[in-house]
């Protein structure tokens, strides 16, 4: 008689990680600096946007550096929620851009001066 033995199977429970909403700007920066899900990135951006007025210059610079390296979708979400031209994010490189916010601000100021220069020169004559 041929008897075959079947080993019992064991099922290992799996856990599903739910997006953790960052409670502080520091946690939000950490979430954005790691590879995160779109939901985690959105929660982190919302936390940053809610606290943007209380962040230090160092924190804003770190946020600008981290988000500048993020995928385009994250950058677009960030730009929708945060006024990137409001100050403090001068080192941030927006989506579809090669220049920082600070460089863009300088270019706009130079353009305004150059546009006004012919008007000023013609009034002096």
Key structural traits:
125 residues, 5 helices, mainly alpha, 54% helix
What does this 3D model show about the protein?
This protein is mainly α and 125 residues long. It has one domain (25-124). The chain has five helices and no strands. α2 packs parallel to α4. The radius of gyration is 25 Å and the shape is elongated. The N and C termini lie far apart (117 Å). 22% of the residues are buried. Mean pLDDT is 81; it is low at 10-19.
List the helices and strands and how they pair.
Layout: H1 25-33, H2 38-50, H3 57-68, H4 72-81, H5 101-124
Helix pairs in contact: 1-2, 1-3, 2-4
Which descriptor suits the 3D outline? elongated
Helix count from the secondary structure assignment? 5
Average pLDDT works out at 81
Q: Let me know the largest β-sheet.
A: none
Rounded to the nearest angstrom, the radius of gyration is 25 Å
How many beta strands in the DSSP annotation? 0
Element-level helix/strand string: HHHHH
Q: Give the CA-CA distance, first to last residue.
A: 117 Å
User: How much strand?
Assistant: under 5%
> Any low-confidence stretches, pLDDT <50, length ≥5?
10-19
Helical percentage: 40-55%
């Amino acid at each position: 008689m041929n008897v075959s033995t079947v080993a019992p199977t064991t099922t290992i429970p799996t856990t599903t990680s739910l997006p953790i909403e960052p409670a502080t700007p520091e946690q939000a920066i950490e979430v954005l600096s790691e590879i995160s899900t779109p939901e985690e990135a959105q929660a982190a951006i919302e936390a940053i946007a809610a606290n943007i007025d209380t962040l230090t210059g160092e924190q804003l610079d770190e946020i600008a550096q981290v988000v500048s390296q993020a995928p385009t979708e994250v950058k677009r979400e960030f730009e929708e929620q945060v006024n990137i031209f409001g100050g403090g994010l001068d080192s941030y490189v927006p989506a579809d851009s090669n220049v920082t916010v600070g460089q863009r601000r300088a270019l706009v100021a130079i353009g305004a001066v150059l546009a006004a220069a012919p008007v000023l020169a013609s009034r002096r004559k």
